[in-house]
Each structure stands twice: as C-alpha cells, then as structure tokens.
Design a protein that fits this description.
single chain; alpha/beta; GIY-YIG endonuclease; Rossmann fold; 4 domains; seven-stranded parallel beta sheet; six-stranded parallel beta sheet; 22 helices; binds adenosine-5'-diphosphate; binds zinc ion
C-alpha cells in the first residue's frame, strides 16, 4: 500500500502530494487525515505530514519510494471529510494545502496543561487599520510593527512575537493598556462546565415561526438537505426557530453546529442552549486555551456532544454525522478570516453542508447581499419572520436633511429636531443614545451645501483624502487634487468631513446643561473592563445620554432608551469601498433597533447630507427588500459581488521599485492568461495603508462574471509565481471577495 502525503511546509513550491510506502507494521493504522512522520528531501530530514489519500500501486519505480516512519506522537487526525473541505478551501481561496489543513484542524496539537503566554489582537479589521494609521502617523514604529504583525496573524505566542517582531514587553504592555491586544496565559483550569437540562419550557410559536420551522422539517424529513435564510428583524424569534430545528435534527441522531459572531456570544444566548440541550452542548471561544479546546474536541469524538456553538472556527468541529449548520448574524464581517486561506465561514458552511449532506440555516435581520442573492437564484429558501415575537412596535424614524439645517443658519452637529427630542427625554427621565458612525471611515471630501461627494470616475467609490491635498481611489489608484469649490453647486463649503466623539461630547454638554453624559469610543475604552463599566453605568441609569461609535450598536438591550440619534449617517456611506451602501444600511437599521426595546415606543433621528440616497431612505423605512433592489442595480452596473466575483491580489515587499516591477509583471501575465477576455483588471494601486513596518504594499483587483474562470486565473497566477524566482522576495496573498478594502 502507498499513501499520498502533504508535508508540513508552508511553501508554494512544495505544495503537492508526495507518495510514500506504508510499512507492514503501520498497515491498518493509518487513515485519511492521520499525521505521520516521513523522511523528506536529500538529507531525509524527519518531517511531519498528513495522509490525504491511499493507492495500491506506486506512481514511481517502487524502489525510489521512501517509507512512512511512524505515526506522529500526540497527533490528532483530521477527519477525512474535513480533508475534502480543506481541498475545497485551498481551491477556492488560494494558499497551500497545508495551510488549509491547519485551518480545519481545530487544535494543532495535544496540549499539556503547561503555561504558555500568547498575544491576541482585540480589534476588528477596521479598528486595527485606524490604529495602525495612527501609530504610523505618530511615527511609533515598534507599536506599528507589533500591530501589523498581529493583523497578519491575530493570535501569536509571546516568545515568537518578541523575537520575530523585535518588540519588548513594554511595547506589548502599552498596547494592552490601550485595549489593542490581550496578553494571556493558559494557566486557567481546564475543567468542564456541567449544566443540567432545565424543564422543557415550550414557547408557543407564532404563525411565521411555525411556518419557518415547518418548512425546514418537511424538507429534512424527506432527505432534502438545503440552504435556508431566516430573515427576521431583531427579536422576531430567530433563535427559538434555530433551537426547534436543532431539536429535530438531534432527534434523528445527527449533530448541529451553531456559528455566532464572538461579540454576540453572550451569557444569555449560551444559557438558552444549555437550557434546552443540557451538557450535550459545547462552546468554543477565543478566550479558551488550546487545552480547553482539546477537551471539547475529545468530547465531540467520544460522541458526548450534539450541539457545538462558537465563532468561525467552530465550523470545523469533527462531528461524525453532521446534520445542520446554523450561521447566525450571517452578514457579520467577522465571518471572513484574515489569515490564509482567507475563507468566508458562510460560504464554507454551505460547502461543508453539501459535502456531508447537512442543511445550512443562515439568519439575519439585515441579510448580506450574498445570502439574499442565493434566495433569488433558487439556491436558498427564504423563511421570513416579519414581526417582533413579543409584539412591540418598530420605532418611528425621522430623517433630517443637514443641508437644510445649514440654510436655516444651524451650523451645529445637532439638528433642531434632535435637540427638541433630547430635551423631551431629559424631562421624562428617559435615555438617549447618540451614535457617530465611523466604521470604515477614510476621510472623504464632500460639500456641506449640496451634499456632493468626490468619487472615482472609474470605480464609483469615494476618494480618500491624503496628505498634500491629493484625493486617491483605493481600487484603481486614480488621483486628483483637492478642490476649492464644489463642482456641483459652486459653493466654498467643500472639504474633509470631520467629526469626532470628543467634539460631540463638548457640544452636547454645552447644549444640554445639567444632563449627565457618557462617551464610549477608542479613547475611553483603552483600559481593561472600561467597556463593560460604561455600559453598565448607562444601564443603571447613571447617565441620560450615551455618545459612542459603532461599539454601542450591538448586542445590548437598554429598555429605557427611547431615542437614538444618528449624527452623521454619511460617514460610512462614503467610505471608500463598494460595500459602503450595504454597511450603512446595516448599521442604521441595527442602530435604530436600539430604540424602544422595552415597553416604551422608540424614536430615531437620522441626520444626513444625502437624504435621497437609497441606503438612507430604505433604512429609515426599514425596507430591506427595497434596499436590496437598489444596491443590486449598483453591483450589476459596476460588476461587484455578488453579481461578479472579485479577487484581490495583495503584494508586499521591502523594495518599492522592485515591488512595482513585479506587480507590473503579474498584471501583464493576468492579461495574457485571460485568453477569453472575461476579466476586468484594476490596479495595481497602493492600498489604504501602503507601507507597514518598512514593507511596501500593492494591490490588484480582478473582476469576473464567472467564478470558475476567476479561480482558473488564480491557479495560473499561483503557478506563474511559483516557477518565477523573481517573485521569491515578495509576499503574495489572494483574497477572494474581500470584505473591505486593503
Ligand atoms: P432573535 O433571535 O430573532 O433576536 P429571539 O429568539 O431571541 O429572537 O426572541 C426574542 C425574545 O422573544 C426572546 O426573549 C424569546 O424568548 C421571545 N420569543 C421568541 N418567540 C416567542 C414566541 N413565539 N412567543 C413569545 N415569546 C417569544
Ligand atoms: Zn455643492
Ligand atoms: Zn477607481
């Protein structure tokens, strides 16, 4: 017998299978996914690798084939089904097979309970980018280097960080103080938590819930394992529906995975699952040590777990008979991995479901365009939950045109309508949240008089203001000079859009003397736990007004909040990537959802310079489908996902001239490889952060209507890079349908 083995080296040039013979003492002991030790290369260095296939005959003369030495000690076999999934991920997202295999293996190695320190990034991509820019602007090189390192790989061992990135403990501590990273040790107890199943507390489903769960079960019972999208507003009872679906699947002797973004993985949510499924539930989270994760995976393998709940990585739980994968809040950008392979958990869940005959249920109040598009193409069944389960009314939404405010002589950041409503709340002792939408904000230029925004003529995204009065497109590199007057109305009110939470706090305090105000943003949440402290103070009624960035939007219920003010809805609308409209709609709907969660009806004020923009109109009307139609028209016209697919090729190198040259070669190759002329090639251009710890960066985008064609071109590019020594000194990464912009 012979085994095909992937050797554990992350290097494109060796990313292929090697054939080894299986000595008689190992016959029957190996299976697909087993980790083994093999002699490798000229010196027969002992390396580890994974078995990916078996065959009865040699591909080379038998005497040239080396034998497998042994099974790796303390190895964990990758289930053979997960090997197939890894192959799909490599194919789809690029990178090497070994990187894909390591991704689907939830724990790398059996962990003894020894102390090990690791450094973990706490910011999401957008926040990290902003931070990085800040350090670079301040010329804080060590901090920038550390953050950039963590952006490449969000969790790293302490020893590696200090050696590889040349940073001291003091630098790590300073970033810890600022809430950028956590320094964790794994000395925690590895005990299992035992929960007893509660009394069956049955919820009486409303009509829509019954229909949704019923439709799923009707298919499932007949062996139809499809994809479903539960589209229901927050509080419409989605989680109850998932629980019912899981109950049915588990009743059939199969298992379920529930993916929840880490921020939404709250104590309350977890307890709801424990209440229904007792200790046959297992939870993964990023705070757990490798040892704790290992314990949970052992329970899975012993068949003690029916339901695994966790963030992205829980998708690779090695269940024997997986029947259902739920992806809650499927629109969340946290589902996209930032490490190679840069997979999307939603898409990968659908692939795993198909391979293993499991159903996939996506859920969201603001579905991604990708998910809704699947429903339109018939690949996914739409299940609607249009009303709040407990019957509360939706808030009333007012849109205020800030251009009119300016005309009326109000130059303040706060409109007259909002002032009046805040005063009303102060009188009644109710609370207000003021939300400044800075997500993905990248310094666009607009006219306060007419609302005109300077955009790229080729890509239809906003230009970003750079030093020296340049405006730059981050897709194609188009540049122009900052203007003095508005090309649309001739007014001189054109300029960078500036607003900070600090500034708003000052204004609010001046305007509403005597009101108690709390502020939550990057500055006020630097210290550990300050995040929780601010929220609980607000929740306890210690303040009348909470001012904050997107941090305040998610996952918290304040029953006494009856007014939400969105101060500058345009900030995310004119961020510089094609998802800005979708992100704005999503944030506005979620922010609006904060108002009137208790028994009191809520009101929402959206302040904007572009009241006619469909993202804002549709969010004000809480009309997802109206938004979808308009947004799809834009994506179709410009060839953006989900209508087309977009591949980002990110190139990094120390020598700027050389990098430019190499990027040029890669582009000419792409042009030549594209024989059928199906590609649109954009760039190479400098990304948003164009230089990180002395490494220059370039990015090229490839757009294509047919996914298979794009993947074909990606394979050709990978081969071209592999055989050309010239690319050895630059790092090239692929990102398929990236969430933001580089
Ligand atoms: P979602 O996941 O859509 O936000 P949940 O499932 O968390 O919604 O439900 C919101 C609240 O309504 C929860 O407290 C839940 O227990 C309750 N709930 C859900 N369905 C019903 C129902 N049919 N009748 C009464 N209460 C319900
Ligand atoms: Zn103007
Ligand atoms: Zn452009």
């Amino acid at each position: 017998m012979y085994a095909d083995i992937i050797v554990d080296i992350t290097h494109e040039k060796l990313d292929k299978v090697f054939q080894y013979s299986i000595p008689s003492e190992l016959e029957g002991a190996l299976s697909v996914g087993t980790e083994v030790i093999v002699p490798f290369g000229k010196g027969n260095r002992e390396m580890s690798g994974y078995v990916v296939a078996f065959s009865g005959k040699p591909d080379y003369p038998a005497e040239k084939i080396k034998p497998v030495l042994k099974k790796a000690e303390k190895s964990i076999a990758i289930e053979s089904k997960l090997v197939s999934l890894a192959a799909w991920m490599k194919e789809q997202y690029g990178g090497t097979m070994i990187q894909a295999l390591k991704t689907v293996l939830p724990i790398k190695r059996k962990e003894a309970a020894r102390m090990k320190r690791k450094v973990r990034l706490l910011l999401d991509t957008e926040e990290a980018k902003e931070r990085l820019k800040f350090y670079l602007d301040k010329n804080q090189k060590a901090r920038a280097r550390l953050l950039a390192g963590l952006m490449d790989q969000p969790e790293q061992e302490y020893e590696l960080v200090t050696k590889k990135l040349h940073v001291t403990l003091a630098v790590i501590r300073s970033l810890e103080e600022q809430g950028v990273l956590a320094l964790e040790s794994e000395e925690m107890m590895r005990g299992l938590v035992r929960y007893r199943k509660h009394e069956e507390d049955t919820v009486h489903f409303n009509e829509e819930q019954r229909r949704a769960a019923g439709r799923f079960w009707e298919d499932y019972r007949r062996g139809i394992y499809g994809n479903y999208l539960v589209y229901g507003i927050t509080g419409s009872g989605k989680t109850e529906v998932y629980i019912e679906m899981i109950r049915k699947v588990v009743g059939q002797g199969r298992q379920a995975i529930v993916l929840i973004p880490e921020i939404a993985l709250t104590y309350q949510t977890v307890m709801r699952f424990y209440a229904r499924f007792g200790d046959r539930v297992s939870i993964l989270n990023s705070r757990m040590s490798a040892g704790e994760r290992y314990d949970q995976m052992e329970r899975v393998k012993r068949g003690e777990v029916d339901v695994m709940i966790g963030p992205r990585s829980a998708l690779f739980t090695p269940f024997k008979n997986l029947g259902l994968i739920v992806v809650d809040e499927e629109h969340e950008s946290a589902y996209k991995s930032e490490q190679v392979p840069r997979y999307h958990a939603r898409e990968t869940a659908i692939a795993r479901g198909k391979m293993e005959g499991a159903s996939v249920v996506l859920g969201s109040a603001t579905p991604s365009l990708e998910a809704f598009y699947r429903c339109k193409t018939g690949d996914c069944t739409l299940l609607r939950l249009p009303a709040r389960a407990a019957g509360q009314e939706l808030p009333r939404v007012y849109t205020v045109d800030m251009r009119e405010e300016l005309k009326q002589g109000n130059r303040s950041m706060i409109s007259d309508r909002l002032k009046e409503l805040v005063r009303e709340r102060l009188k009644k002792g109710q609370q207000t949240m003021l939300f400044l939408n800075r997500r993905g904000y990248a310094g666009f230029v607009s006219c306060r008089s007419c609302g005109y925004v300077v955009k790229c003529p080729h890509c239809d995204v906003s230009l970003s203001a750079h030093k020296g009065g340049r405006l730059v497109c981050h897709y194609c590199g188009y540049e122009e000079r900052t203007r003095k007057t508005c090309p649309s109305c001739g007014s001189g009110c054109i300029g960078g859009f500036k607003a900070g939470t600090q500034q708003i706090e000052d204004i609010v305090k001046r305007e509403f003397a005597g009101a108690k105000v709390l502020r939550m943003d990057m500055d006020t949440t630097k210290k550990k736990d300050s995040h929780e402290k601010i929220l609980s103070a607000f929740s306890n009624g210690e303040a009348d007004i909470l001012i904050g960035t997107q941090m305040i939007v998610k996952g918290h219920d304040f029953p006494n909040v009856t007014l939400v003010g969105i101060l500058a809805a345009d900030m995310s609308l004119y961020s510089n990537d094609y998802r800005s409209g979708e992100r704005t709609f999503e944030l506005l709907v979620q922010a609006a959802g904060r108002a009137g969660r208790g028994n009191l009806k809520g009101e929402v004020v959206i302040q904007t310079y572009s009241p006619d923009h469909y993202s804002i109109r549709m969010a004000a009307a809480q009309d997802y489908e109206g938004f979808y139609k308009e947004e799809m028209r834009y994506r179709e016209l410009m060839g953006y996902p989900p209508v087309s697919d977009l591949l980002a090729v990110l190139m990094t190198g120390a020598d700027e001239k050389y990098l430019e040259l190499a990027a040029g070669y890669l582009k000419s190759f792409a042009v030549r490889a594209d024989k059928e002329k199906v590609l649109q090639i954009i760039g190479p251009a400098s990304p948003y952060v164009s230089k990180v710890s002395d490494e220059y960066r370039k990015v090229m985008y490839l757009k294509c209507k047919k996914k298979e064609d794009l993947i074909g071109i990606k394979d050709l590019l990978e081969q071209y890079i592999e055989i050309n020594r010239g690319f050895d000194c630059i790092k090239i990464q692929f990102d398929f349908n990236p969430m933001g912009i580089f």
